[in-house]
Predict the 3D structure of the following.
Amino acid sequence: FFFQAEDGIRDKLVTGVQTCALPISYRGQGIGVPRLDAVLARHGATRIIIEMKGASAELARAVAQAVRKADVGPRCCVGSFHALTLNTFRAACPEVATSASQPEARRALHRSWVRWPFRDGQPYCAFQLPERAGRLRVISRNFLSYVHREDKLVQVWVVNERADVLRLLDWGADGIISDRPDTAVAARDEWMASRS
């Protein structure tokens, strides 16, 4: 699942606060936001993407501590738009897979336009990107092919429509991040069945 915390709350989600301000429609229903350690413990062997929101070295260190404590490094990928946050996490947990930061993703996209290969030694194994950023198309068949030639993965967000899930999987997306898992999982299953 995905939760975009309000400013000042994101660090508390990692370090101990179990509930915080939720949209009005959920207030008074006993619904809270779980701590990261609770999510990692509850979902056993599930592969998980942890997206760190904000430019915060403190957040990165707290996430690194939670990942290590739960011993989930082999089944998670940690990402952030912010280079400071990701670089701090990478220094603290070099054995854990990370996705590209926004500047790293931007460089890869620009290089893909002119078909320049990646530079050696990239610190990430994946990209979590939107299909579009404003008017700019980010995800295309060409970008996916370029990234796959470099042995990296691409998970596209936020994809909520069945037709979009099917199209992106046809193009070669490695994963879909959705606010509508019911729709996304059904579309993925349909796509997989059409391949067998």
In short: The CA atoms of residues 23 and 31 lie 11 Å apart.
